[in-house]
């Protein structure tokens, strides 16, 4: 059982994290070149019109006043309206449309990483210094080292251009029309009962998920191997074996739970990389998630969208870490004492 | 400077809180001086409005970075320490050290933004 004090302490940290991230984003946007008033009015607009836009947006106020106003709005979850990306729309509506797409991608990527990374790490530890171990370690090193902007186009070249078995971009074939119920394309196609559309969505998601999953898998397998090796050397493992328990049973019954403790804490940090990776993955595979939203908002100096998107990233990252911490404290109750 | 590590049980809570407040005030004052200095320095190249805005943005950057890194060190410090040990890439980075460093940075940033805002009021408004 997790103590309320532990959860409350973790929840309290959410405030400083979001405040800090909001402040950094605000500062960076105002230090970077580019004038949102010019972006909105257009390069050929008259100086009077640009000035009018600037006044309307409050950009003529001193920066500290804009900062105070921004913090007040953010505290009440009022992210304002988009300047450019979807001009005049509420930023929260835009985020609500795009967020499920990125979450679906991150969840599938993390699931793929766990599904393959955990067994690979265990196998690598159990068969230490064998050919299997060497292959697994080299594979993990390659997986961590290969950047998404390289592996993505490589997969597109191989599976879409050369072999022609997978689509290059998007989330669904152009012949399918599915109403967005949850925003998660796999769930929506299933809810619509359209299996052909489901297959199309799955084929579209395969490459992006592999790209995200490989990095996650490499990291998890490396951690799992290291953790497992430590656990198998513990006295209780030797005792269990000495009592006549088989190697497999000892590992599954005693080793796995303990070896999993440090790995689960890493998953939270991993999720952060996953979100960062989603920006690149969505760009490479032309998926309209929150990652591509961020890129276009930065390109168009759409301050409210950039600020809200980064805050949402930070919020998700912190919440996932909170969940991971709670899981950790369930597996090892000593942590919250 | 007193340790910001809550697990250090050596001092009573009141004394520890007081020491932290004094340390925070000292670093905020340092930040205040930096904020005024940067605002004045930028005045030599830009208009008062641009100079104080830029000084404020720089201070906000320091404040935001300090607060984010401090809260990350508090929340994930032990995980990061453990991860570095396991991956055998430990570089001597510790949670307590990081907390103290970012405590200083946060309060310097806080003093800086307040001073830059005050400079803006004096020079622009």
Automatic annotation (TrEMBL), chain A:
<dbReference type="GO" id="GO:0055085">
    <property type="term" value="P:transmembrane transport"/>
</dbReference>
<keyword id="KW-0813">Transport</keyword>
<feature type="domain" description="ABC transmembrane type-1">
    <location>
        <begin position="99"/>
        <end position="324"/>
    </location>
</feature>
<comment type="similarity">
    <text>Belongs to the binding-protein-dependent transport system permease family.</text>
</comment>
<keyword id="KW-1003">Cell membrane</keyword>
<feature type="transmembrane region" description="Helical">
    <location>
        <begin position="305"/>
        <end position="324"/>
    </location>
</feature>
<dbReference type="InterPro" id="IPR035906">
    <property type="entry name" value="MetI-like_sf"/>
</dbReference>
<keyword id="KW-1133">Transmembrane helix</keyword>
<protein>
    <submittedName>
        <fullName>ABC transporter permease</fullName>
    </submittedName>
</protein>
<feature type="transmembrane region" description="Helical">
    <location>
        <begin position="259"/>
        <end position="285"/>
    </location>
</feature>
<dbReference type="Pfam" id="PF00528">
    <property type="entry name" value="BPD_transp_1"/>
</dbReference>
<feature type="transmembrane region" description="Helical">
    <location>
        <begin position="105"/>
        <end position="126"/>
    </location>
</feature>
<keyword id="KW-0472">Membrane</keyword>
<feature type="transmembrane region" description="Helical">
    <location>
        <begin position="201"/>
        <end position="220"/>
    </location>
</feature>
<keyword id="KW-0812">Transmembrane</keyword>
<dbReference type="GO" id="GO:0005886">
    <property type="term" value="C:plasma membrane"/>
</dbReference>
<dbReference type="Pfam" id="PF19300">
    <property type="entry name" value="BPD_transp_1_N"/>
</dbReference>
<dbReference type="InterPro" id="IPR000515">
    <property type="entry name" value="MetI-like"/>
</dbReference>
<dbReference type="InterPro" id="IPR045621">
    <property type="entry name" value="BPD_transp_1_N"/>
</dbReference>
<feature type="transmembrane region" description="Helical">
    <location>
        <begin position="138"/>
        <end position="163"/>
    </location>
</feature>
From TrEMBL, chain B:
<feature type="transmembrane region" description="Helical">
    <location>
        <begin position="101"/>
        <end position="124"/>
    </location>
</feature>
<dbReference type="InterPro" id="IPR055692">
    <property type="entry name" value="DUF7268"/>
</dbReference>
<protein>
    <submittedName>
        <fullName>Uncharacterized protein</fullName>
    </submittedName>
</protein>
<dbReference type="Pfam" id="PF23930">
    <property type="entry name" value="DUF7268"/>
</dbReference>
<keyword id="KW-1133">Transmembrane helix</keyword>
<feature type="transmembrane region" description="Helical">
    <location>
        <begin position="55"/>
        <end position="76"/>
    </location>
</feature>
<keyword id="KW-0472">Membrane</keyword>
<keyword id="KW-0812">Transmembrane</keyword>
<feature type="transmembrane region" description="Helical">
    <location>
        <begin position="20"/>
        <end position="43"/>
    </location>
</feature>
